[in-house]
Structure formats: C-alpha cells, structure tokens
Design brief:
alpha+beta; Arc Repressor Mutant, subunit A; Copper Amine Oxidase, Chain A, domain 1; 2 domains; five-stranded antiparallel sheet; 10 helices; elongated
Length: about 290
C-alpha cells in the first residue's frame, strides 16, 4: 500500500484543495418527495424514559417510501452530545460527543459521523427553521435502534454503544484512496448520484472475481478498462464530494444496482452487448 501511495503521490497534479466544511451540497438522489406530514402528539421514549425534542417528529412522504425525521441537534443532545452548533448561513449543524462528532447540512443526502458518510436517502432538510434528519440515519450513527408504532404514534429508541465504528476502521485505506480517484477521473463533472454510481460499478466488479480482479486497485488498473489509467488522470487529487461518494459506495449505496459497465456514449461494446439499466446525466450504465 505504501509503495502505491508514494508512486501516486509523485504523479499527483494538485487540481483542487478540499475541506470537509465548504462545498456545494450534492444533488438529492432519486427520491421524489411530495409532502411533509407532521404527526401530532407523537410520544418518544429513550430506553423507556419519555423525552421531548425541540420540534415534533415528521413523516416525509414520497412516491417510493417514507421515513421519520427528527430534529438533529435536539436528538443528539438527548443522546449525550456535549456541544451543539447551528450555522444559519450554511444551514448546517454540528453535534460534538466525547470522542466524535456528527454534522449535517440541508440538501445533503448524507451525514458525517466519526469519519464516515451515512446515507440519508431523502436528504437532510430544514423544516420550520429546524434541521431535520432521518431517524434511521442518526440511530445508525449512534449505534441505536428504534421501533415505531404509527397507530399509537410512539417512537421507542434504545441506545447502544453510543458510537459507530470509525471511518479509519471501517474503510480499507487503499480501497478508499483509489475509489475516490477513479470517481473523480470518470465522473468529477457529473452529479453526486452519478459519482456514487461509478463507485458502485467498481465495487460490483470487485465482487465478481471470476470476471474481474478481487480488489479495487486491481479492478481500476486492469488492462484496457479505464481511460483515466491510460491518460494519467486517475492520479489527480479528488474533490471532497468524490471522497464522500466513495465512502457512500463503500457503505453500500447502490444507485445502479448490479451494473458492471458504464460509458459516456451508448454506441460502444457495452451498448451493443449488455442490458441497459439506466442513464445518469452523461453516463449510461449496463448490467
């Protein structure tokens, strides 16, 4: 790993310097949210004790599915956060616990927690001036579980370890390193969903070792497969958005399912030999 990192570092062209605190919010993925319905008088318990948020939980309705949203900062405070911050200008919230932090921004389709990116499929959103985040996503960040009874209007939260496994432990360093770079080289100019989709394809190949190499580096550098390897752009430094897309792909977000091929043009080998799954902006994806 160190030899590869050193080799890549010597080839880098520093195109973009990145910071996890400043970039445009990614496009929300394919969830057609149509309404926000407030569930009045919802009773919430934490480990059997009644608790109260600064704002009522809400149910986000869509043409696909729905999920319960809770006020992020209020939820984190109840779960033991020591420092809570809200930035009105960026519409972002930060909750600091003893050993890690959770942050989220309105419009993003993920939150960050302990060095990881956790998917929030309907997007983080401000409702009546309060940043609301999916309960399922926040519970995952804090290793908690919950039960919802929509008829009784109750939400029962059961705390766990209080911390999710860190990104340093969860992500393989080399996989993340190269996955972020191929995402940047292949789809840095595409929407956020398209960037995750490229990572999705690479990982699908890794999981098909009878047809492709069984690691991210091997898949990317397989002879004749990825143009950025041939023209050297795979060595460029990714944007923060591409790092996030790589992490979400490694978390299991799969916008193109089992696809193994993608291209910017339809008239190519995959277009003539494989089944088209979908198109995302400038890329076609095939099974």
């Amino acid at each position: 790993m160190k030899k590869r990192l050193i080799t890549a570092a010597l080839c880098f062209i520093l195109l973009v310097s990145f910071s996890f605190s400043a970039f445009a919010a990614p496009t929300v993925l394919r969830k057609n949210v149509t309404s926000v319905a407030v569930k009045d008088a919802t009773a919430v318990t934490l480990d059997g004790e009644k608790v109260r948020f600064e704002a009522e939980p809400v149910k986000i309705s869509s043409s696909i599915d729905s999920d319960i949203y809770v006020p992020m900062l209020s939820f984190c405070e109840i779960m033991g956060a020591k420092v809570l911050k809200w930035d009105e200008e960026s519409q972002s919230a930060l909750a600091v616990f003893r050993e890690f932090a959770i942050d989220a921004s309105a419009g993003d389709v993920y939150i960050t927690a302990n060095g990881r990116c956790l998917y929030a499929e309907y997007g983080c959103r401000v409702i009546d001036g309060v940043l609301m985040v999916q309960l399922s996503t926040l519970c995952k960040a804090l290793d908690a579980v919950y039960e919802i009874d929509m008829e009784a209007k109750t939400i029962d939260i059961i705390s766990g370890a209080g911390i999710i496994m860190s990104g340093d432990e969860f992500y393989d360093e080399e996989d993340l390193f190269w996955l972020a770079r191929i995402i940047w080289a292949e789809s840095g100019n595409q929407c956020f969903e398209g960037q995750i989709a490229v990572g999705n394809v690479v990982l699908n190949r890794v999981n098909n070792p009878n047809r492709f190499p069984n690691d991210v580096y091997g898949v990317i550098f397989q002879s004749g497969q990825f143009e950025p390897v041939m023209n050297g752009t795979v060595y460029n430094n990714p944007t923060e958005e591409c790092w996030a897309a790589a992490k979400l792909a490694l978390e299991g977000v799969r916008p193109v399912g089992d696809c193994l091929y993608f291209a910017a043009i339809y008239d190519c080998w995959a277009g003539n030999n494989r089944v088209l799954y979908r198109r995302i902006e400038g890329h076609y994806f095939w099974l």
